Each structure stands twice: as structure tokens, then as C-alpha cells.
Amino acid sequence: MADLSTTYMGLGLKNPIIVGSSDLTLTADKVKACEDAGAGAVVLKSLFEEQIVDEVRQAREQAFFPDNHTEADDYIRKTTLHLSESRYLKLIKESKKTVSIPVIASLNCIRPDWWTSYATRMEEAGADGIELNIAVMPTYLMQTASEIESTYIQIVQQVRSKVQIPVSVKIGPYFTSLPHTARALRNAGADVLVLFNRFTQFDIDIKKMELIHRYHYSTPAEIHLPLRWIAVLAGQSGCQLAAATGVHSGDEVIKQLLAGAQAVHVCSVLLQEGLGRIGEMLRDLDAWMRRHDFESIENFRGRMSMELEGKPDFYQRQQYIRVLSGSAP
Ligand SMILES: Cc1cc2nc3c(=O)[nH]c(=O)nc-3n(C[C@H](O)[C@H](O)[C@H](O)COP(=O)(O)O)c2cc1C
What we know:
By secondary structure, the chain is an alpha/beta fold.
């Protein structure tokens, strides 16, 4: 068997397949099932700030406190936060007790001070690393690109200054100059960039004339966006890269490693077809490596990246005339 081990966020992984943040990692038992299926690491389901705020609201309603009752309000907010937080911290502690693979906590906040307070407590609970799931949606006319980017940078800087454990940042693809932003996130303290956050799909129900937020599972066809950006960023972002979205088989794992990824996050295919797919991906990766006489992933990682491949046109041209005119193979 080839050596499938890799490093990720400075942690040693037995293989590059990480079960991504999702319902697959919602309980310690589920995390154990991921380990048993062969995963190299897991990212726990995210703790969302909205989730906590909603619990605060419910507690407030149950206690019949009026909105302007600030002291009581503050008390409830603190106690409910504590409850919510303790549930998440329990998940970290139980998972760490149950498995030996790295357990990465995941955090998605809106308010700046919440990022640091939760990250600190996640570290204290024993998380091996923290993934910051940052998604600032540009919806206001007066919001400039640099203001939005500096929000990302500030969050990473603030969390980095409070925790010792490695920090990864899961971002979306909508940046004007991703290489520049990636380097800025690295300089702010990110150890890994996870490409990309897959947002809920915005839709409209034309019968009811209502807005719909759906979450469809990904397909392997969605690999191309993260694949391109992993290949472009590998070697110049200064931090490790993980590919998320569209990894459904060993072929996609191999492609992302060739592009320069340190690891891949997988969710949709496991939710649809079961955790057994992890073993199949690992067997396919191993067979491919042996066919090509690669003893370890380091022998081929990044071989097709922009840095090493040596055909800048493939990465720089967004509309390749031979493809569009149908003359390319
Ligand atoms: C049911 C479900 C729940 C998810 N929950 C989270 C979450 O809590 N936090 C997060 O960062 N990503 C979440 N994701 C996104 C996944 O972590 C992953 O990035 C995305 O699904 C792309 O990977 P895939 O193509 O293998 O599905 C979720 C995905 C699914 C399908």
C-alpha cells in the first residue's frame, strides 16, 4: 500500500480525506463512524451564531420578559449562551474522547467579539484546530470590497491572537483577487484555506411568490471551480489548501492533490451513498499511486499547479478560444 499520509493544519493525518462540517459530524457517535470508515480527520458541524441567538429569543419568550427588560434580558442571554455553548463544547470533548483522528471545531459568527470568545473555549475543550466559516455577503451599496475583505482579515487576526491551535478559514469564491486575499489571510494567521464554502441556493417559489433557500447536494461537476483556484493558489498563497465541493470519488481526490491540495473535505456523496465511499476513494487513490510509482503523496502533490506545471495560459485565460471554437480536443 502507498503512503497516503499528509499533514494538515500542522496535524498528521493518516490520509487526506476529511469528513467536512455537516450533519455527518453532529454527534460523537457520528464522528466515531467517520473514523471507523477510514477518514483522516473530521470537521464538526458548525456552531452558528444565529442558532445561539434563536435560543436566546426562545428563552426570552418563554420567560415572558418584555424586550426592554435589559437586565433580565442580559441574564437570559448569558445563561442561554452558556447552555448552547456547553452543548457544543460537550460535542468536542466527547468526540476527542471517542476517536484518535484530529477533531476540528467549526465556527460561524456575525459579531466580532463572539468569534474570539467561542474560539477560545473551543480550544479549551480540546479541539485540535478551528475552522472559521466566514461568509460576509456584499448586499449594501456603500460596502466596498476592501471593507469586506478587511472584515475577514480582522476576524482571523483576532482569533489568531487568542488561540494557539491551528486555524483554517473556509471562504467563498467571490473575491476580485483571490491570490491577494489568500496571502492577506495567511498573513493574518490562517494556517489553511478551505476552498470553497458552498452557499445555500437562492430561489423563488413562483406559485407562492416566496423566497426559498435550498441546499442541494453537490455533484462532481462542481469540482472545477475549487480545482482551478487550488491550482492557482498552490505555491503562492503561503498557506496550505483544502478542497471542498464536488469530491465524490477517488478521481476528484487525485485531481485536487495534483492541483496542490493538502486534503479534501467530503460531504454530499457520503450523505447520499454512505460512509463506505471513503474506503473506495482511498483504494482508488492507492491503486492510482501504485500505477504511477508514487510512494507518497508528496511525490505528486501540486504537480499540476500553476507554479509547477509551466503552462500559464491554462490558468490565466478564462475564455480559451480553442475550446470555445470547438477546435480543442
Ligand atoms: C447537510 C449539510 C450540512 C452542512 N453544514 C455545514 C456547516 O454546518 N458548516 C459548514 O462550514 N459547512 C456545512 N456544509 C457544507 C460542507 O461542509 C461542504 O463544504 C459542502 O457540502 C461541499 O462539500 P461536498 O461537495 O462534498 O458536499 C454542509 C453541507 C451539507 C450537505
